[in-house]
Design a protein that fits this description.
Blueprint (H helix, E strand, L loop, with lengths): L1 E2 L2 E2 L6 E7 L9 H18 L4 E5 L12 H18 L3 E5 L3 H10 L3 E4 L8 H8 L3 E4 L17 H19 L6 E4 L8 H9 L1 H5 L6 E3 L4 H7 L7 H13 L4 E4 L2 H14 L1
Parallel strand pairs: 3-4, 3-10, 4-5, 5-6, 6-7, 7-8, 9-10
Antiparallel strand pairs: 1-2
Helix pairs in contact: 1-2, 2-3, 3-4, 9-10
The chain binds 9-methylguanine.
Length: 271
């Protein structure tokens, strides 16, 4: 798949490093220190083997509150501008706001990662006009409430139908089929059983004909199964990354790049 001037071969799984630019991420020394810490972290993730750096200024954790457009731009833009000049990785913008998509792509981002699958007003048309690849993710509800007793009759079929419908809407809006990536949205309005069914169901999602991205790193499914705190979830994250690659995931989104590169490489080779 082509991301700006870079061709990425998604027939072998690739790693997306997470760069959250939210106040709780790099906040101890003020805005400039936070930006420098974020940039140093991104450079480290690229050295460790990340093909993508996913920059996000609005938390999507369960219970998270939305941020204003200006606050999101103030958080992500200085980082994207600097990253575009310094790192070789593909810069991804994690946003659902068309204005942020536009500013980020103008500054050098070449992937839009939207957990709302381009459902915000004008998001489809903006992404089509920007002509970069998009990742369309499934979420039931919204971050503030999504873990309040989610229910599905058949989670794999419902997520596959949603992603198929959003991909079709994207293509109708003018996004190239070769620019579509889909993501089941692990943890976004799903119980442990739903997440497990989706992990086993990744081959059914891949049948849509688009590369599948997964984000399982440090998610609450690991805490629910093991009691591990967020900081203790690397082993569980690696197990899930390996299983996802075994089931056909093309891109793995992670906080822990070096360890995930190794787990994914081994899982892919064994597969
Ligand atoms: C922003 N974000 C948080 N979790 C995510 C996931 O699982 N997938 C994608 N595409 N984005 C995510």
């Amino acid at each position: 798949m082509r991301f700006g001037s870079r061709d990425v071969d998604l027939t072998t799984p690739k790693i997306m490093g997470i760069l959250n630019v939210t106040p709780d991420s790099f906040s101890d020394g003020g805005r400039y220190a936070a930006r420098d810490a974020a940039l140093a972290h991104a450079e480290r993730m690229v050295q460790d083997g990340a093909t993508f750096i996913d920059v996000g200024g609005e938390s999507t954790r369960p219970g998270a509150q939305p941020v204003t457009l200006q606050e999101e731009l103030d958080r992500v833009m200085p980082v994207i501008e600097k990253l575009a000049a310094t790192v070789s990785a593909v810069i991804s913008i994690d946003t659902s706001k068309p204005q942020v998509m536009r500013a980020a792509v103008a500054a050098g981002a070449s992937l839009i990662n939207d957990v709302y699958a381009l459902q915000a007003p004008h998001a489809l048309a903006t992404a089509a006009e920007l002509a970069v690849p998009v990742c369309l993710m499934h979420m039931r509800g919204e971050p503030r409430t999504m873990q309040h007793d989610p229910h599905y009759d058949d989670v794999v079929r419902e997520v596959r139908d949603f992603l198929g419908a959003r991909a079709a809407a994207a293509i109708r809006a003018g996004i190239a089929p070769a620019h579509v990536i889909v993501d089941p949205g692990f943890g976004f309005g799903k119980t442990v059983a739903h997440n497990a069914a989706l992990l086993r169901g990744l081959p059914a999602l891949a049948e849509l004909g688009f590369p599948v991205l997964v984000g399982l790193s440090r998610k609450s499914i690991i805490g629910a199964l093991t009691g591990a705190s967020v900081q203790e979830r690397l082993p569980g994250s690696l197990a899930l990354a390996a299983l996802a690659v075994w089931e056909g995931a093309a891109i793995v989104r992670t906080h822990d790049v070096a360890a995930t590169v190794q787990a994914v490489r081994v899982a892919h080779a064994m597969r």
